[in-house]
Design goal:
Chain lengths: ~110, ~110
């Protein structure tokens, strides 16, 4: 069945370094992808999204890359800060307003 | 603009009881979706409401139900609670013009 998964459950990076969080999806019909950040005790917070007709989108310190050939999504965070520590989820949807989430990657920033 | 709000934030129930959770979407948003989050299963879609009609439903038993009111506020109900229903229940809303869903802080339900 459809699924969205993450390659790494945990990721530790040094403060100031760049972080890359990866995600694999299985449904080639997915046309919209979102990255969410979830801090302890809070709901998922929207970070950035990308549609299937794009392969790259940039926000403030974040970039999402989409490779439809291998069904791979990545989130790049530049110059990571302590406040970036959280669990990051990718999600996919194909127009039905139903998001399918990956299991999440916990990002830890080391001082 | 205020975000999605959920009440209550925490709830403790015992097996066999029922529970009702409430969600107020962002002003102007007409779609409300509910998700269950557990350490083992992650985030799973429960159902989605739009203009008081259930538009989409996930793979959950009939004990899980919901509704939406004319002001777009939504409630979900879980009857005959089981231990496995302990989870964070998240509500998300979206506007008719975009696919992005914005989440509330969730309701932490503990079933004893």
């Amino acid at each position: 069945g459809e699924s969205v998964g993450l390659h790494l459950p945990t990721l530790s990076v040094q403060e100031g370094d760049n972080s890359i969080i990866n995600c694999a999806y299985s449904n080639s019909a997915s046309d919209y992808f979102i990255w969410y950040k979830q801090e302890s005790g809070k709901g998922p917070q929207f970070i950035i999204d990308i549609r299937s007709n794009m392969d790259k989108r940039q926000g403030q310190r974040v970039t999402v890359l989409l490779n439809k050939t291998v069904k791979h999504l990545s989130l790049q965070i530049a110059a990571t800060q302590p406040g970036d520590s959280a669990v990051y989820f990718c999600a996919e949807t194909w127009g039905a307003q139903k998001l399918v989430f990956g299991q999440g990657t916990r990002l830890t920033i080391n001082p | 603009k205020a975000g999605v709000t959920q009440t209550p934030r925490y709830l403790i129930k015992t097996r066999g009881q029922q529970v009702t959770l409430s969600c107020s979407p962002i002003s102007g948003h007409r779609s409300v979706s509910w998700y269950q989050q557990t350490p083992g299963q992650g985030l799973q879609f429960l159902f989605e409401y739009f203009s008081e009609t259930q538009r989409n439903k996930g793979n959950f038993p009939g004990r899980f139900s919901g509704r939406q009111f004319s002001n777009s506020r939504s409630e979900m109900n879980v009857s005959t609670l089981e231990l496995g229903d302990s989870a964070l229940y998240l509500c998300a809303s979206s506007s008719p013009n975009e696919d992005t869903q914005y989440f509330g802080p969730g309701t932490r339900l503990t079933v004893l």
